[in-house]
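Quick start: read one record
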Amino acid sequence: MRIHFQELFDTLHRVLIKTGFTNDRATLSSRLFAETTRDGVYTHGINRFQRFMRMIENGSIDIHASPEKVVSMGALEKWDGRQGPGNINAYLSMERAIELAKTNGIGCVALANTNHWMRGGSYGWQAADAGMIGICWTNTLPNLPPWGADKPLLGNNPLVIAVPRAGGHVVLDMAMSQFSFGALESYRERGEPLPVDGGYDGDGNLTRDAAAIEETGRVLPIGFWKGSGLSLVLDMIAAGLSGGLATHQIPVEPELETGISQVFIAMNISAKDAADRIIADLKSVDGVRYPGERTLDLRRENMEKGIPVEVQVWDDLQRMLV
């Protein structure tokens, strides 16, 4: 089924108001969930909303908490998310980084004690829409085995890099695993094999079977040892700058995943000319896309035709209003 964007937003907003959110916070969180779904990242949009609500119920998310500044060092600030809703905390942190960049040329907010930010790309688009280069990342619960091991000790630690341009922002949004757990879920539900090996099955063999990888939890780092190393240093920097928890300190139960650390950087300098030249060269080969291009295509299609929503997911959302 397809749902118009406004109807999806209104329904999410009503649920959050019923839950006790103030109007402004319900509006921001609902918009971020709806935009994520509109842009085709269904696993971190409406499909993740029920988990978000359960985390509110179990106390992992405090709907009334707002981030507080802890330390200010010029263009760098440390903030405490106080276990507030992750997408609200992340949006406000990038907003603050953008404000700092307007004054200093660059702004960095290190955020501790927050929750899952849902789609990390949202905050890359946010920076790019403000005309700034944006970089942000988060650590996660331990869900990625280091290269050469079978025990999850690292996080898949999503990294977002955004470059603004009038012809369509370039927004790279990637996890440190070859396929995010949301992507594995999508392939499993569609009954499709992964396009390349994404992890290991129960016999220790590389496989394209998403369900087998979910069962073992042995996802493959991007670039093998390189992705493993990148995950490690992103965790070190996020925890070190923010003074928050590192991956090994975060609860391993997904619905208790709280206290995570994030970094948001905005740079108030134009890379437009270079970006345009690079994209023009890239497009000299038919069929090649830049990061974020497919998002723009899906956004246009879903705004025109309505956003694809699973019937069961929509029914579950309606029941939250009863």
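The domain at 64-177+223-291 is CATH 3.30.1370.60 (Ribosomal Protein S8; Chain: A, domain 1).
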